[in-house]
Design goal:
This protein is an alpha/beta fold. Helices cover 39% and strands 13% of the residues. The chain is built from twelve helices and twelve strands. Strands 2-8-7-6-5-3-4 form a seven-stranded mixed sheet, sandwiched between helices. The chain starts with 6 loop residues before the first strand and ends in a 9-residue tail after the last helix.
Length: 387
Amino acid sequence: MPLPAVINLDHNATTAPLPEVVEEMVRVAREAPGNPGSRHALGRRARQELESARERLATLLGARPSEVIFTSGGTESINLALRGLTAGIPRRVASLPGEHPATEETLRALEAAGTRRVTLAIDGDGRLIPARLVELPWHEIELVTLLLAHNETGVVQDVAPVVEKCREHNIPVHVDAVQAVGKIEVDFQRLGATALSLGAHKFHGPRGIGALLVREGVKLRPWLRGGHQERDRRPGTECVFLAAGMVRALELWHRDRAELTRRLTLLRDRLWEGLLTRCAPVRRIGHPEHRLPNTLNVAFPGCDGEGLLVALDLEGVCCSLGTTCASGSLEPAPILKAMQIPEELHRSCLRLSVGRDNTPEEMDAAVERIAAVVRRLRSTMPGIPPP
């Protein structure tokens, strides 16, 4: 089979809806076109589909149906949690360094309103340092937010030590699981978080739909104003067919998760081993084991990341410098600075994320294309050995 002209290694940015997901959305759009808030037959049919999606999503994520709030995606879910879990402007908020822009920009807005920020310490592999938690002013902190799986490095955090501290001090804790759900097992009850955000398009669901899980009994101030949808927590007419598509996508991942995890890990490792052989010197950024099965962040010393990105696009390899939501920024990635990656390295980093449609042959072809570009760029840099 001939290789495609374009090899997609940017699945952390978005994924294409699976055919079964599209079929489910079309079915629901046709069979339940009513407003789920309407008190007639069409409304009741739409409400049945919506509540079925809510119950199924809750089961898949270890939550109660009453804990599921449908939103427009991960960004809205994060904003709703950070703005709604406290009674007003929190005095102090604790977070990991290098959070997703949806979190970072919301925290900056809170800081402008008077919130003080505390940053949790991480090590050179991007993992939380539990021993440093004793240094935090827990008596002043009113909210904690944590990224479960980092969108740029793929590093997966053990959030349990922070969640335990929050429980001791009665502090709400939000977990951003947007890059984790549909890639690794996520159980809301087992995590012990107060709230958890997710977005469908990261796991082959539709764009424009996500969810925020909020522990039962926790008061959440609505961010938007309007009707009484989602139990007065998120106004706006629910998009029933998008909710159904999101749940179907997650059901498909759960059905195939063992085989998918195995295949994605093999593809990721094949890509890394090929780069290690053909593009040396290279450096893998982030913990080698505690990471998403599909994600690589690789530094290519002697190359500029922007130059790599443009050249690889011309060669038919889609990848990114980091989170797509921050594209266009010339500043070094905050997570790489926090990990104390030398500047000459973090300016040469690429994020490579594989997906279920990639093949081993594509990994080999991608390695060849990347190696050719790296060789060309390094030829202009003295002291860098050719790959």
